[in-house]
Specification:
By secondary structure, the chain is α+β, with helices and mostly antiparallel strands. It is built from 16 helices and 26 strands. Helices cover 29% and strands 24% of the residues. It is globular and about 75 Å long. 45% of the residues are buried.
Length: 696
C-alpha cells in the first residue's frame, strides 16, 4: 500500500488497473469511544467552485443522481468508526476537475481530540491502494482530508490535511455553496395522488419537514444546530398545524435537499369490513413451505426491487465496488462448470460506459448456514469468467476478522474476485431508511420498498436476520450456573461472537426505526486482533458470567449500556448522564424527575459521586415525592446520574416469545422509548446568526 505524506500526490493508474470506481474510507478513534464526525464531498470545476449547491454531498444529500458519488455511512471498527464513500470516476461530469473529501465535527468538538485520523483509498476490487494518516489536525472543527483531481485525462490523489476553524459552513461557502436563510424545505410536502385526506398530507409533510430540519443542523454544524434541533422537536409536536405554519419554522441550511417521497408512519384507515380481511400483497409469503421455496422467492423479490428502485439497488451494491449505471438482475442462471453446471441463486449486472460489472449471489434463509463448497465453487467460476464479486446473503452477521466462509482465491489469476456478505437485517435497515426517513424518487418506488419490507418481516419469509445464539448457548449458561465453565473453553468464544452479532443487529434495527445512526461501541486498543479481543471477552464471561455491550445513538446524551447477567438471569439497560456545569444539586434532581414523569416507576436512579464507587440510589417511584433523597448526605460532588431498567432474560437461545434474543430487543426498545427519549439531547452549540455562518 502506498503511504502518503501531507502535500504529496500520486496517479491512481500507477497503483491499479481497476480505478474506474474507487472507495474512500475516513477512519478515526477516540479515548472514550464517543468521538464522531460527519463526512462531506464537494465536486469542483476548474475555478475551484461547485457548479450548484447540489454538488455538495453530506448525510442529507448522500447520492448523486447519476450515482457518481455515494456516501455509504459509518460502520464500527475495532477502536472507532469508519465512514465510506464511493466514486464512479468514469461517470464524473467532464466539467468537474476536483473531488474534495472533507469531514466536520460539531458541538464544539475538534479533530485534535480524535486519534488515528486516516484516509484509505481502495480500487474497484476492494484492494487498498493508498493511505494518508493525519497527525497534526489541531483545534479545528472541519478538515480537508484530500482530493481527487484530473491531470492529462487521468485521475490523481493529493493528500491535504488542512483544517478549517470556521467549520463545515465556512468550508462550504469558500467553495461556493450558498447558505440560504430564506429557503423553504423542498421536500416538505408530498402531494397525495389518490385523494388522501388533508390530515395524511399534513402528517407526511410534517415528517419530511422534521427530516429537513435535522438536516439543517448537520449542514450548519457550527451554531445553527441548537435552533434546528429545537425546531425539529416543535415540528414533531404540531402535526395538526397547517403545513404552511410548520414549514415557516424550518432552520436555514444549504439548498441541497431534493424533493423525496417517504411513506406516512401511520397507515390510512382500512376499507376492509373486518380484521380478518388481508391486504393483497405484491410479494405473498403465506404459501411458502420449504427452505428452497424461501430462498428462491427471497432472491427474486430482492433482486427485482434492486433493479427497479435505483436508490436501493445502488445503496446495496456501491459498498461492493459496483459502478453507478444500468442494473439488471437475474435468477435461475446456469453457468458451465465441468460436467455439472452450477446454478447460483442470482446474478447482478451493472453496465457503465459499455463495461459490465457482474456479481454472483448465493442466498440462504431461515437461519440456514452458508456452505463453503458452494461459495468456493462460485468464486472459482467468477474468477474464470472475469466476474468481479460473489455476494453471500443470509440471516447471519459477519464479524471483523471472522469470515462466515473461508474461501481460497487463486493469486495467480489476473482477475481478482471480491467476496462480500450481506445480512438480511442490513437489507431491511436500508429499506427502512429510504422509505421512512430519507425518501426515494417517486411514490411507486416507495410503495415497492414498502412491499419488500413487508415481505422481509413476514414470519414465513425466513429473512428475519440473526435469530439463534447457537448450540453453545445452553451449555455455557449451564456451565456458568453450576460454576463448571473454565477459561479457555471454546464454547464461550462462540457465545461472545453470537452476542456481538446480536448487538450489531440491534443497532441496525433501532437505527432503521429511528432514522438515526446507532453504532456499537468497542473499547479496545488500536491494532488489537479481533479474535484475541473476543477470546479475552470469553475469559471475562467465564469469570463474571456477564455479556456487556454499549450502543451510541445519535443525539442522545450518553451511551446506552446493555448487560446480560447469566448468573442472575437478568438484563440491565442503562445510561449515564452528566450534570450541568452550573446550578444546584437539588435543582438537577428535581429537573431529572420531572423529565422522567412518564418513565416506568421501577426505573432505578443512581447518583454518580466523583471519586467514589457509587452514591445514593432508589426507584423513580420512591424519588418522585422526594427527589432530594437521591443526593449524597455528605455533600460530595455529583458528576452525574445513572438510569437503569431490569428485566428477566429469555431462557431459550432463539427469538421465540421466551427467547433470549427477543428479550434483548424488547429491553432496548423499552428503555429507549420510555427513558432515553425523555432526556435532554446532547448540548447544542452556542447560537450564532446566519449572516455570521455565511461569512465563514
Amino acid at each position: 500500500m502506498h503511504e502518503m505524506v501531507k502535500g504529496g500526490n500520486v496517479g491512481l493508474a500507477s497503483l491499479s488497473e481497476d480505478t474506474g470506481s474507487v472507495m474512500v474510507s475516513l477512519s478515526w478513534s477516540s479515548p472514550t469511544g464517543e468521538g464522531d464526525a460527519d463526512v462531506s464531498v464537494l465536486l469542483l470545476t476548474a475555478d475551484g467552485k461547485v457548479r450548484a449547491d447540489t454538488d455538495f454531498y453530506f448525510y442529507n444529500n448522500p447520492v448523486a443522481p447519476d450515482g457518481c458519488v455515494q456516501l455509504l455511512g459509518k460502520s464500527p471498527t475495532e477502536d472507532g468508526n469508519e465512514d465510506r464513500m464511493t466514486f464512479d470516476l468514469t461517470a464524473i461530469p467532464p466539467e468537474v476537475e476536483q473531488i474534495v473529501v472533507a469531514a466536520s465535527r460539531y458541538e464544539g468538538a475538534r479533530f485534535g481530540d480524535l486519534h488515528d485520523l486516516r484516509l484509505t483509498l481502495a480500487d474497484g476490487a476492494g484492494e487498498n491502494l493508498l493511505r494518508f494518516s493525519i497527525e497534526d489536525a489541531g483545534a479545528v472543527s472541519a478538515l480537508l482530508f484530500g482530493e481527487l483531481y484530473r491531470r492529462g485525462g487521468d485521475w490523481k490523489f493529493r493528500a491535504i490535511g488542512q483544517g478549517y476553524e470556521s467549520g463545515l459552513a465556512g468550508l462550504a461557502t469558500d467553495f461556493g455553496v450558498d447558505i440560504d436563510d430564506e429557503a423553504e424545505p423542498e421536500d416538505a410536502e408530498v402531494e397525495p395522488e389518490d385523494g388522501e385526506a388533508a390530515a395524511d398530507a399534513v402528517a407526511s409533510a410534517t415528517h419530511a419537514l422534521t427530516s429537513a430540519t435535522h438536516a439543517s443542523a448537520a449542514a450548519l454544524p457550527i451554531p445553527a444546530q441548537a435552533q434546528g434541533q429545537a425546531q425539529a422537536q416543535e415540528v414533531a409536536q404540531t402535526v395538526s398545524a397547517p403545513v404552511e405554519a410548520v414549514a415557516a419554522k424550518a432552520a436555514p441550511r444549504p439548498r441541497t435537499a431534493k424533493k423525496k417521497v417517504t411513506l406516512p408512519r401511520v397507515a390510512k384507515k382500512s376499507l376492509a369490513e373486518n380484521e380478518s380481511w388481508r391486504t393483497a400483497r405484491l410479494f405473498p409469503a403465506s404459501a411458502l413451505k420449504s427452505d428452497r421455496e424461501r430462498e428462491t422467492r427471497a432472491t427474486s423479490v430482492l433482486l427485482s426491487v434492486m433493479a427497479q428502485v435505483p436508490e436501493f439497488g445502488r445503496r446495496l451494491t456501491a459498498a461492493f465496488g459496483a459502478p453507478a449505471g444500468r442494473m439488471e438482475t437475474f435468477t435461475e442462471v446456469s453457468l458451465p462448470n465441468g460436467d455439472s453446471p452450477r446454478r447460483p441463486d442470482g446474478v447482478i449486472r451493472v453496465e457503465r460506459a459499455g463495461k459490465l460489472w457482474t456479481a454472483l449471489v448465493e442466498t440462504k434463509t431461515n437461519g440456514n448456514p452458508l456452505k463453503p463448497d458452494q461459495v468456493q465453487a462460485y468464486a472459482d467460476i467468477a474468477a474464470r469468467r472475469g466476474y468481479e464479486a460473489v455476494i453471500t446473503l443470509s440471516n447471519d452477521v459477519e464479524l471483523d476478522g471472522t469470515p462466515l466462509v473461508d474461501v481460497k482465491m487463486d493469486g495467480r489469476r489476473k482477475n481478482k474476485v471480491a467476496l462480500w456478505h450481506l445480512s438480511w437485517a442490513e437489507v431491511t435497515h436500508q429499506a427502512q431508511m429510504l422509505i421512512r426517513h430519507e425518501g426515494v424518487a417517486n411514490a411507486a418506488h416507495a410503495w415497492l420498498l414498502q412491499e419488500l419490507l413487508h415481505y422481509l418481516q413476514h414470519e414465513n419469509s425466513g429473512c428475519h436476520g440473526f435469530q439463534n445464539m447457537g448450540p453453545a448457548w445452553v451449555p455455557v449458561r449451564k456451565g456458568i450456573d453450576d460454576e463448571t465453565l473454565c477459561q479457555g473453553d471454546p464454547r464461550a468464544v462462540h457465545v461472545v461472537e453470537s452476542w456481538e452479532r446480536l448487538v450489531r443487529q440491534v443497532c441496525l434495527r433501532l437505527g432503521g426505526e429511528l432514522g438515526q445512526k446507532v453504532l456499537p461501541v468497542q473499547r479496545a486498543k488500536r491494532g488489537t486482533d479481533p479474535r484475541a479481543r473476543r477470546a479475552a471477552l470469553a475469559d471475562q464471561l467465564c469469570r463474571d458470567g456477564k455479556l456487556d455491550a454499549e450502543l451510541r445513538i445519535e443525539g442522545t446524551p450518553g451511551i446506552l449500556a446493555l448487560c446480560a447477567d447469566l448468573r442472575t438471569g437478568k438484563l440491565r439497560t442503562s445510561i449515564e448522564i452528566a450534570v450541568p456545569e452550573q446550578g444546584y444539586p437539588l435543582t438537577w434532581a428535581k429537573r431529572l424527575v420531572r423529565r422522567l414523569d412518564e418513565a416506568p416507576a421501577d426505573l432505578h436512579v443512581e447518583t454518580l459521586v466523583a471519586g467514589e464507587m457509587g452514591g445514593p440510589r432508589g426507584t423513580l417511584e420512591r424519588l418522585r415525592p422526594e427527589p432530594g433523597d437521591v443526593l449524597p448526605k455528605n455533600g460530595a460532588r455529583i458528576s452525574g446520574f445513572r438510569l437503569s431498567l431490569f428485566r428477566g432474560m429469555g431462557n431459550t437461545r432463539g427469538n421465540a416469545e421466551s427467547g433470549f434474543i427477543r428479550s434483548v430487543d424488547e429491553s432496548v426498545d423499552r428503555f429507549h422509548t420510555h427513558v432515553v427519549v425523555h432526556l435532554d439531547r446532547r448540548a447544542p452549540r452556542a447560537p450564532q446568526s446566519v449572516e455570521a455562518v455565511s461569512a465563514g
